[in-house]
Amino acid sequence: MAIDRNKVTKQVNLDLSKVPENKREDIKREVGFIIIDRINEHLNRSESPVKNGLYKKQLADGDKSRLLDTGDMRSEIEFKTNAQGVEVGVFDSGETDKAYAHNTGFDGHPFLSGKGLERQFIPAPGVDFKDEIEREVKDVVDKVKINDVAQIIKQLGFSLTESEAEAVQLEALTLADFILGKL
To answer: I need a surface site. Which of 27, 47, 89, 147 has the fewest CB within 10 A?
Structure first.
């Protein structure tokens, strides 16, 4: 989604095609909570969670450089699940203008445009969160894929050899291939 004055959000698409349907909503919620936690951890350190994101500081800001002046905007950072994955950010609320201003450096403001401090905490269109956040999200999804294949194999009464377990983790051995190999 775009960063605009009505909604400052990022759509995070998840490949859940290999995740059982009964676990997909749980995964989306887990990813949403993880992203919000990582956004707040970065803001607590006066850093941007956005890949190559700007986070301008002024010494005179003190704690305000952590976007904690009142905490109102940060408390509005939330997520919503959808068919593609999770949308994270500040949705239509009284804090949307403030979120837009911080993410863009007050772009379009009548007298602060270009003068405000840009503190990106939601990626703009075509931009992602930092690699470590993206990896953590991918790991959450992959863990369910991996565990489910191994779990199904065990529920069928088979045991995995060390090399088979490694192949399952690398997604080189699918459930169908394993079963066909046992027939």
So the answer is: 147
Length of the chain: 183
Into how many domains does the chain fold? 1
DSSP assignment letter at 111: T
Tokens of 66: 């952590």
**Rounded to an integer, what distance in angstroms lies between the CA atom of residue 64 and that of residue 24?**
38
> What is the per-residue pLDDT across 126-160, written as a single tens digit (0 to 9) for each?
999 999 999 999 999 988 876 667 777 777 888 87
Query: At 11, phi and psi to the nearest 5?
Result: -85, 125
Is 142 a domain residue?
A: no
**Among 32, 23, 11, 28, residue whose Cα is nearest residue 145:** 23
The pair of structure tokens assigned to 63 is 């704690």
Cβ contact 67:121 at 8 Å = yes
Residue 33: give the domain boundaries: 8-130
Kindly state the DSSP code that residue 15 receives in the 8-state scheme: -
DSSP letter at 70 equals: S
Q: Identity (one letter) of the amino acid at 26?
A: D
Whose tokens are 């169908």? That residue is: 176
- Structural domain contains residue 123: yes
% residues pLDDT > 90 (the chain): 37
